[in-house]
Amino acid sequence: MELTDALLRIAADRGLDRVSVREVASAAGVSIGAVQYYFSTKDEMLAFAFRQVVDRTRARVSALKPAAGPRQTLAATLRQLLPLDARRLAECRVYLAFAARATTSPTLAAIQNATLTTIHEELRQTLASLPSLPSPPSGSGHPVLHPARDARLLLALVDGLMFDAVTAPTALPPATAAKTLDLYLERLLPGSD
Amino acid sequence: MELTDALLRIAADRGLDRVSVREVASAAGVSIGAVQYYFSTKDEMLAFAFRQVVDRTRARVSALKPAAGPRQTLAATLRQLLPLDARRLAECRVYLAFAARATTSPTLAAIQNATLTTIHEELRQTLASLPSLPSPPSGSGHPVLHPARDARLLLALVDGLMFDAVTAPTALPPATAAKTLDLYLERLLPGSD
């Protein structure tokens, strides 16, 4: 969709925090009225852009080829949330601009709360449905998977890797963020592929 | 300092993204000239506020009472970065506003990169200096500590817990974020207090 592409381009080039409806219309090659059909305020624009980013990410996850095992599947899924190419970097910038505004906009906060609650529940179900792993030797310190808590950990870790790689790519290059995620998943699911 | 308190109050109440120098001066009870001595543009204001937040956080960490052991010390330190009271929540909001702008401002990006690089190095040194833990039974899946990589993981995890708890406090209440951090540290340093 033209409007979403225009928003992502603007987010990538100079950020969404000072953009106007007029400018989005011009970048998308549509009328101001057409843009206002979808949003008329800055908050509505951020909410629209964020929903489009979520939809696009979900579409990419659905299109993933089957992986070797559950750990590889989880890794491939979560990589869709990291800024590993120009498209995902632009999406991450939209997410950051949206989330920063959510701290002072109740409407955006409700969307962000609902989105993270849904992703947490999906991760919890994924972790709960994993084929049972070999029991760790008692007292070995082997992590025992706890689906609800581990889903929170994993969600925070991916959001944090995204946050650090987008806001400080010298300190955490995106490729290093992906390797760091792999290290975490190898420890969490040591018997799995 | 009056100016910092005014910025933190505005960040907490309505965010820093639409605030003017005039408004900050009025909230701090000082002249516009006094404010402009510290910053005259929005980016300079965010950089100033972020530096103050970093300094305040470091001062709190330095003032921490000695904890039972290295894991408790690390937990107490990292909790200073989570939104566990009104003051830390306001600081986190400043951090988010700053970081979101850093994605499109090279000046802010340089500060954010330098800050995360420094924190990563401090965490790496802390992890490298831990008294050696009992060796895990071979093949037990016990995580073997890798200071540089584990410092990246830990930094991303804390940033992610902060991000989720500030932007989606219904999905991740701040107290749950702190418990999630504890769970992670117990697994990472199982033999420690």
TrEMBL record, chains A, B:
| DNA-binding residues (ranges) | 20-39
Q: Where is the HTH tetR-type domain?
A: 1-57
Report the Pfam families cross-referenced here. Answer: TetR_C_6, TetR_N
Asked if Transcription is a keyword of the record, the answer is yes
PROSITE patterns (UniProt xref)? HTH_TETR_2
MF terms per GO, please? DNA-binding transcription factor activity; transcription cis-regulatory region binding
Q: Which UniProt keywords apply?
A: DNA-binding, Repressor, Transcription, Transcription regulation
State the protein's name: HTH tetR-type domain-containing protein
Q: Which organism is it from?
A: Streptomyces inusitatus
